[in-house]
Specification:
Layout (H helix, E strand, L loop, with lengths): L6 E5 L13 E4 L3 H13 L4 E5 H6 L1 H8 L5 E5 L8 H14 L5
Length: 105
């Protein structure tokens, strides 16, 4: 059984290309509409993990919400070269609070 978990990364600048070095497919876009379309295509291609720059993640809440209740894909926000907007940390805090009922951070 040789199943390969498909992983992709979507970002707004060339810093996303570093993911190519570890075999992750990368997509660069400045358009939130295009980012939404890329995610839709990746879901149809059965990608399991999709890393998304925080800038894009913050601007496509409907898309994130649409796939949030599904097992796959897992959509993970990542900081860009401009630095973190703490989107990922906020998401972890929300999930922990939802799971245990209090914010422990």
């Amino acid at each position: 059984m040789n199943q390969k978990a498909e992983v992709a990364a979507i970002g707004t600048d060339e810093s996303i290309l570093i993911f190519n070095a570890v075999g992750i497919r990368t997509f660069m876009t400045k358009s939130m509409t295009e980012a939404d379309q890329i995610i839709f295509q990746l879901v149809n291609q059965k990608f399991k993990i999709i890393y998304v720059s925080e800038e894009i993640y913050s601007n496509i809440p409907e898309t994130i919400l649409k796939y949030q209740s599904q097992t796959f894909p897992v959509i993970i926000p990542i900081p860009t070269k401009e630095g973190s907007q703490n989107v990922g940390l906020k998401k972890i805090q929300e999930n922990v609070e939802k799971a245990i009922g209090i914010n422990i951070f």
